[in-house]
Every structure is written in structure tokens, then in C-alpha cells.
Amino acid sequence: TDEFPQMNLDYLPQDHAHLVWDAGVGRVFEYDLATKEFMRMDDSYNFKSFFGHADFVFPESKMIYGFGGYGEFTHKEVLMYYSPEDKEWTDILYFGDRPDPLFYGGFHYDDNENLFYFMQYIGFFVYVYQVNPESWEWTLLDKFDLEDKPFGVGFSSGLNSFDPNTGLIYLFGSLFYDIQAQVVRKYSISEG
Q: Which of 25, 89, 143, 188 has the least CB density, counted as fewest CB within 10 Å?
């Protein structure tokens, strides 16, 4: 529709609802799947400045974390969060190793270790960053080359597929990144 031209969404299982926000960051809504009604949750506006940002949503608190994106003729190096209590987006000062703002990436959260992981794909290389939410320090853990890894046309990643129990982040196909060992592992499913 005209009011929601480009939106991001995440499922809120405890509310049987979707958290919906502007693709360029800004307005935030909750869409109740039972009543089919939108409820405005913020006091901001459609920024139109962070298209393609990496995001991670904590469904219980409805906090949204975002990094990067593109808008207003520039790539962003901004780390931010949306707080339902404040009803606003706030920048987070961070330091350490910085991802390249020209390339998209994806957030993962390890609730066992209270750490974020940020995966960024640049050509055939994957960069793995660890982000400490206590200090907001970014550390480049690994960079590996996927050129010799077999994959088909239409490369895409599982940018939000992380299992904190095994420490594996899904890359694509049968490839996973093991954050403890800092290696790419190939797994296959056998029948029988």
C-alpha cells in the first residue's frame, strides 16, 4: 500500500504478531495476526536512510538492532537500536574492527554467550565479526575464501540462521561456520 511501501518484519511468537518497521528505518508497528490491525509503536518518521541494513530482533522485548544500510546517497556505518520504551531509534557508539559499509551483512545472536556475530559477504570472501553488547567492541574473528567451495547459481546466505547450542552459523548449501573452531564445516544429511 502507499502507507507501507517498503517494510521489514519479524515474527513475535509470544504475541502472535509481526513487528514491522520501515525498510529505511523509522516507523515501527505491531501487526496483530488475529485482529489484522496495525498498532503504531514509535514517535519517529520514515528515515529512508538505512535500506538493506542488517537487523536482529529480540521478540520478547521488541528491541530491534540494526547496522549499516544505504540511503541519501551514502552507505552507512551506523549501529543503532529501537527501544519500545523510548519509542525512538538511538545510535550506539562502537569501536574496534569495522565492517565495510559498501557490503551487506547479517546479525546473529548467541544468547548462551551474550554476543552478536556479524557475517559479511564481499565477493567470495566471508568476514566474521564478534560484537560484545556490553562494550560494543567489534572484533574481526575470521576471513575465509569461498571460491573453492561448491555452490550453485543464485548464491544466498542464511543470514539469520544461528544455533547457539552448536555454535554453527548457516552459510548456504551444506556449509556452516563453526564460531568456536573458526572453520567452515560441511555437513550432509543421510537417509536411513
A: 188
**How far is Cα 119 from Cα 58, in angstroms, rounded to an integer?**
18
pLDDT values of the chain reduced to their tens digit, one per residue, 192 residues: 457 778 999 999 999 999 999 999 999 999 999 999 999 999 999 999 999 999 999 999 999 999 999 998 999 999 999 999 999 999 999 999 999 888 888 889 999 999 999 988 887 788 999 999 999 999 999 998 876 655 443 444 444 478 888 888 887 677 788 888 888 888 776 665
**Residue 170 grid cell:** 548457516
User: Would residue 34 be called left, alpha or beta, if left means φ above 0 and alpha means ψ between -120 and 50 degrees?
Assistant: alpha
Q: What is the dihedral of CA 53, 56, 59, 61, to 10 degrees?
A: -90
Burial environment of residue 107 by CB neighbours within 10 A (0 to 12, 13 to 18, 19 or more): buried
d(CA 33, CA 157): 28
1, β-bridge pairs:
none
Look at residue 160 and give its three-state secondary structure.
coil
